Amino acid sequence: RNIMAIMAAALVMVLVMVEAGDPELTTDYPAPEGGAGPDSHYFTYRGMRTAAQTATANATAPGSVKTTRVTSESFGVLKGTGLSAAVLDFGPSSVLAPHTHPRAAELLFVVKGALHVGLVDSSGRYFNQTLHRGDIFVFPRGLLHYQANLNSSIPALAFSTFSSSNPGTLAIPNALFGVPIPTPLLAQAFRVPASVIDQLKAPFI
Fold it and tell me: Per-residue pLDDT tens for 135-149?
């Protein structure tokens, strides 16, 4: 019961919102590295093919989520565009843990199946929705949110776009329990015994 109370409290905590954005481009597009001029391949990214094939084969294991991202780190032409994307492949009964994107808003488009989504704004209000194929949901920049496939037998697939070429992801469970924040501090913050914090930290150590 104590663990559930702490996780509920963690969901309400909105971590630092970073007021950042992509630098403005002063050219048509960022110059390719190495000094060579661009060709058509420079504007093409093929790294999502595997994600598409896996989704078609329903290969994602129950209880797991496979995320395939394309950002300025993997696709240089995105630098300064304010754009990036991800394919989210949800196995049955899976959840993408509560997290934030400190540098970007996210637009989620459900391609297959259904997803339960939720977000918490900076005043502590909680919003949730069940999305079906063709539905879109927006997660404002920096706000705590999650996505989950609650169906125990059918996978789900979604496509996300972000308003930054490198949005960043801060997973709340990892941020709280996967880093060496002293246990007594967390115990005091959550008003529980240190043993409960140790139990929560165990899966992330």
Answer: 999 999 999 999 999
